[in-house]
């Protein structure tokens, strides 16, 4: 049975979540091409350099916050219903959707208000050019912060729907192991609840009252710290859904089975434990945080590489198993016997391959002393376009080719366009991101409308700055084309009539080493959440205490000695 026929109500919700995600992707991609042409000096006719920062805010918010959150909500909704074999609690899940959508509209209106010169609302100019890392001292219209808060609150409500589905399932299946897909969703949501506390306090206690004029000062260090407390784990909120796809669906697309269910559970538990007590690796250059605590964050970050390295081995082993099931031989020649022409498979594999490179640039970022070389340069956008911009985004697009037919009952249209699309994205990203990393090493700053500084010569180690700029522009253009190709396939499929029987289904084959090999303690959420909170208290307690000791709103505080 096709998913849409078994669970029509849940399918409708997943479709709505995906449609919002795709609209955000379209507008975000348009902003992307505008700014990549602008900052490289190739074409500056679309917006003024002052408006560049508003476009950049729109690009980051729509892609990194709206596209991701709505797509993940859709994927998780599908995964929980699919693996627990039931419709999701209807009312809770839909109220999550509407709260998130209201938040998105508020944030989007305040960003776009800044470009079109909207009149002031509530006594404040309607504008938000605070970038997607919206901490003080830059200030946006209150509507932007209220919108951001609603997106987060909506995602909390969505999590409630997944947990409620689990409790219903549990009362009927008291002794069974939590199915792997649901386990992954719930572990991700627990990590998300723990980590969003930081941004919720930042926005509700400080930024909203400050933007409304109710308080005059905020402490930039305190609000930045609260932001990055959330700002690192949010990257795993994007990565873990991609891992859910790579662990549970990709092996099937390769014609095989997942190698190990227990290992997959260990990986997700490791993320729950370690995602949050590392946020200071975004603040190595901030004064007011003792070096010892930056060092703790660095050490935790290096441990946090482990779940991803485990993933690389397990996922590649599972795909190899798939290839061998299809008769492939040889040490490496099995790679040839994989379905590279199928867009869902090819997209996930290319996303994984690119994430290997993104992971390596992440390790460089994480080193406390090497970080000083690349911090605030365009190297950092180079890093995150490989991670969130490919590991997440390309996986999301690829798996849509497989999932959208199942939640609509319609066959995928424009198949040939779909099968080239992941390659266009991969090539565009390879060109753009490589040049960004190199340009960062030459010292070219990020978040800058005109980093071309005619009187100042940046020196590249190899090649010239002009050549790097051109590559960033060409890569950015290819990415825009890749996004457009994806959206054409999706629009055509969603608008088509239903006809014929589908050849895809959501049945996930049993792993080679199944849940019965997993120690039961891995499913003990209370234990893992308690340890996660303890690690956070150790990593954040004393530095946060010293930041608030001199008054909540007073900027600056002496670092405590270690
Ligand atoms: Fe990061 C900055 C460190 C992972 C996103 N990161 C950012 C920012 C973003 C971001 C958005 O320590 C910028 C924020 C801003 O605006 O300022 N990051 C890391 C580390 C990891 C890492 C150590 N980042 C991510 C992921 C992201 C993401 C994931 C989004 C989804 N990052 C940093 C640091 C900074 C930073 C510093 C601050 C920089 C600064 O100074 O501002 C690690 O988690 C990476 C581990 C990954 C691996 C790779 C494993 C390989 C796998 C591939 C499997 C292959 C397959 C296919 C399946 C070790 C899993 C095979 C195919 C075949 C053909 C065989
Ligand atoms: Cu980080």
UniProtKB/TrEMBL annotation:
SUPFAM superfamilies: Cytochrome c oxidase subunit I-like. Its main location: membrane. Keywords: Electron transport, Heme, Iron, Membrane, Metal-binding, Respiratory chain, Transmembrane, Transmembrane helix, Transport. PROSITE patterns: COX1, COX1_CUB. GO terms for molecular function: cytochrome-c oxidase activity; heme binding. InterPro entries: Ba3-like_Oxidase_I, Cyt_c_oxase-like_su1_dom, Cyt_c_oxase-like_su1_sf, Cyt_C_Oxase_1, Cyt_c_Oxase_su1_BS. Belongs to the heme-copper respiratory oxidase family. This is Cytochrome C oxidase subunit I.
């Amino acid at each position: 049975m096709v998913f849409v026929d078994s669970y029509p109500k849940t399918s409708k919700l997943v479709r709505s979540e995906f449609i919002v995600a795709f609209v955000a992707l379209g507008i975000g991609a348009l902003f992307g091409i505008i700014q990549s042409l602008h900052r490289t000096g190739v074409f500056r006719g679309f917006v003024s350099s002052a408006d560049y920062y508003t476009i950049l805010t729109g690009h980051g918010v729509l892609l990194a916050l709206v596209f991701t959150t709505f797509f993940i909500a859709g994927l998780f909704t599908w995964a929980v219903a699919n693996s627990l074999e039931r419709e999701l609690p209807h009312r809770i899940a839909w109220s999550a959707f509407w709260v998130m959508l209201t938040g998105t509209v508020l944030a989007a209106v305040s960003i776009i208000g800044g470009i079109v010169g909207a009149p002031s609302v509530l006594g404040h100019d309607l504008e938000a050019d605070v970038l997607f890392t919206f901490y003080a001292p830059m200030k946006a219209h209150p509507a932007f912060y209220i919108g951001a808060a609603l997106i987060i609150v909506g995602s909390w409500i969505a999590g409630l729907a997944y947990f409620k589905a689990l409790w219903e399932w549990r009362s009927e299946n008291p002794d069974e192991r939590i199915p792997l897909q649901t386990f992954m969703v719930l572990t991700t949501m627990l990590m998300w609840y723990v980590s969003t506390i930081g941004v919720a306090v930042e926005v509700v206690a400080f930024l909203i009252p400050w933007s409304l004029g109710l308080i005059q000062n905020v402490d930039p260090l305190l609000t930045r710290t609260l932001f990055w407390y959330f700002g690192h784990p949010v990257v795993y909120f994007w990565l873990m859904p991609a891992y859910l796809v790579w662990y549970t669906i990709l092996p099937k697309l390769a014609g095989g089975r997942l190698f190990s269910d227990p290992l997959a559970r260990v990986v997700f538990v490791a993320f729950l434990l370690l995602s949050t007590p590392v946020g200071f690796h975004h603040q190595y250059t901030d004064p007011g945080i003792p070096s010892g605590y930056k060092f703790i964050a660095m050490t935790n970050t290096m441990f946090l590489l482990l779940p991803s390295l485990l993933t690389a081995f397990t996922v590649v082993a599972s795909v190899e198993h798939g290839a061998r099931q299809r008769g492939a031989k040889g040490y490496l020649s099995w790679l040839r016997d994989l379905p590279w022409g199928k867009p869902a498979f090819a997209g996930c594999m290319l996303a994984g391959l690119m994430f290997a490179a993104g992971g390596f640039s992440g390790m460089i970022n994480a080193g406390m002393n090497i970080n000083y070389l690349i911090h605030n340069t365009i190297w950092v956008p180079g890093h995150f376009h490989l991670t969130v911009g490919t590991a997440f985004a390309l996986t999301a697009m690829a798996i849509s080719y497989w999932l959208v037919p199942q939640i609509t009952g319609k066959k995928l249209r424009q198949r040939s366009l779909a099968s080239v699309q992941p390659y266009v994205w991969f090539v565009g990203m390879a060109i753009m991101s490589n040049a960004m990393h190199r340009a960062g090493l030459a010292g070219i700053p990020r978040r800058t409308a005109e980093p071309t500084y005619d009187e100042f010569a940046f020196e590249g180690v190899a090649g010239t700055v002009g050549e790097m700029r051109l590559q960033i522009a060409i890569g950015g253009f290819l990415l825009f084309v890749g996004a457009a190709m994806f959206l054409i396939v999706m629009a055509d499929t969603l608008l088509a009539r239903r006809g014929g029987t589908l050849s895809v289904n959501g049945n996930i084959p049993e792993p080679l080493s199944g849940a019965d090999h997993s120690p039961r303690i891995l499913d003990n959420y209370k234990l893992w959440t308690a340890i996660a909170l303890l690690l956070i208290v150790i990593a954040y307690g004393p530095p946060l205490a010293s930041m608030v000791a001199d008054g909540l709103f007073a900027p600056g505080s002496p670092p405590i000695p270690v």
